[in-house]
Amino acid sequence: MHVSTGTAESDLISQCKQGNIKYQEMLYKHFYGFAMGIALRYCLTRDDAMEAVNDGFIKVFKSIDNYQPDKPFKAWLRTIVVNTAIDSRRKEMKQWLNTELDNAAGISTGSTIIADLNARDIMQLLNKLPNMHRLVFNMYEVDGYSHDEIAGQLGIPASSSRVYLTRAKEKLRKMITS
């Protein structure tokens, strides 16, 4: 069965709520690419991303009764995958947080230079950023989290989130113009 949208998706979700393993596998296969695309932005390696996706789907199936059908399923799945990827990275964050924040005052934010690049170019540039810069950039610019939400998720002050974002943008500018 190929899942399109609307009724077929709601039938899939309904069957998953009943614990039907066949439909869980179908839901997994249908949304795997979407979830993997999200996880790859937050994880350092493809293996880490795959682990985050698999862990995310386990959470989806365990809590699918909490899914509200009046909301888009993809948005719910995205939240779970992002949170799962972040949770798996929290152990490493102590090392990331050692990044100096002292010189942040002089960095300004300007218009986005990366607008003309294609997605592959942008992903390659993002992968060159330090971990915390990349994580905050993705959460703020790509997934639309506020600095307060990022601070809550990562256990850092909102001002640090702003600094990491500013530094990420500055590093991206330098990479593009050099």
TrEMBL record:
PANTHER family per UniProt: RNA POLYMERASE ECF-TYPE SIGMA FACTO (PTHR43133), RNA POLYMERASE SIGMA-70 FACTOR ECF SUBFAMILY (PTHR43133:SF46)
Organism of this sequence: Mucilaginibacter yixingensis
Keywords linked to the UniProt accession: Sigma factor, Transcription, Transcription regulation
Molecular function via GO: DNA binding; sigma factor activity
Gene3D superfamilies given in the database record: 1.10.1740.10, Winged helix-like DNA-binding domain superfamily/Winged helix DNA-binding domain
Name of this protein: RNA polymerase sigma-70 factor (ECF subfamily)
Pfam families xrefs: Sigma70_r2, Sigma70_r4_2
Entry-linked CDD domains: Sigma70_r4
Domain of life: Bacteria
Residues in RNA polymerase sigma-70 region domain copies: 27-93
Domain RNA polymerase sigma factor 70 region 4 type: start-end pairs: 120-172
Any GO BP annotation: DNA-templated transcription initiation
Family listed: Belongs to the sigma-70 factor family. ECF subfamily.
InterPro entries: RNA_pol_sigma-70-like, RNA_pol_sigma-70_dom, RNA_pol_sigma70_r2, RNA_pol_sigma70_r4_t2, RNA_pol_sigma_r2, RNA_pol_sigma_r3/r4-like, WH-like_DNA-bd_sf
